[in-house]
Amino acid sequence: MTLFITFEGVEGCGKSTQATLLGDWLSAQGQPVCMTREPGGCPISDRIRAILLNPANSAITADTELFLYAAARSQHVAEVIGPALQQGTTVICDRYTDATLAYQGYARGLDLARIKHLNQLAAGPVVPDLTLLLDMPIECGLQRARKRNHDNATEDEGRFESEALVFHQRVRDGYLQLAAEQPRIHVIDADGDIPSVHRRIVDVVERCLQQRIQL
Q: Rounded CA gap, 128 and 92, in Å?
């Protein structure tokens, strides 16, 4: 059964690891899976990603940041997500429209209604069936993220990790507010070992699949 699943959460919460594990689990069930991420996912969007995440680009304004995310998403949906879903492939995406609301809206302070309108323009009708919000204390996540960037030599993607703690707290609070408003968003306790978090995620996905079968 085709699903569009997105992963969200603060920096270092384990989204990429858990997305990969879920993709492997769904593939083992016989479901074709497309793994992707935002910003990025295709060559044009990857170039925009390089601009957005590079700490050298600290002069980017909040509006420019917002428009770049929208541009990357528009290309990503047109080139990757939309076609995969049309072919009956389940798509698992590391970040999507909720990230824009959390980061550029709640954390940067841009108008939420404006962001929602821009998200709709960029993504069209392509809305997640299920969003898994991996939640953990921001201090733990940032420590993980900064160590990851150092170990993997990806400091050139660390622009958001360099933001102040208050920024990241606003991101987390924003995500939790979105989860309170959107039934498709399920909060997962990510403050645990990898297998335990994976099991929590699989439990949610299994319930979602069962509900869709019953409809």
A: 9
